[in-house]
Amino acid sequence: MELLGQRWMLRVIWELAPGPLGFLELRRRMDNCSSSMLSVRLQTLQDAGIIVKRPDKSYELTARGGELSRALEPLWAWSERWSRS
């Protein structure tokens, strides 16, 4: 849980949930996150076994990361529902 409390971690998982993305695309989607911070977060998630860097240099969720993403879906749905009000 400590890992998820770090800034940008949930957002990276959210962005990778639909499928693999390269660093530049992730950076574009996370416009308030610096490149250096994104690099640190990606490495931390790799070290934790949540994501993997593919041979084509894109990042994707591992089986562990996919399970985590599915567990977080209700939280994201709640956030979407209540952020509109």
Automatic annotation (TrEMBL):
Tagged with keyword Iron: no
Pfam family for this entry, one: HxlR
Keyword Electron transport: no
Gene3D superfamilies on file: Winged helix-like DNA-binding domain superfamily/Winged helix DNA-binding domain (1.10.10.10)
UniProt keyword terms in alphabetical order: DNA-binding, Transcription, Transcription regulation
Alphabetized PANTHER family for the sequence: HTH-TYPE TRANSCRIPTIONAL REGULATOR YODB, TRANSCRIPTIONAL REGULATOR, MARR FAMILY
Protein name: Transcriptional regulator
Organism: Nocardia terpenica
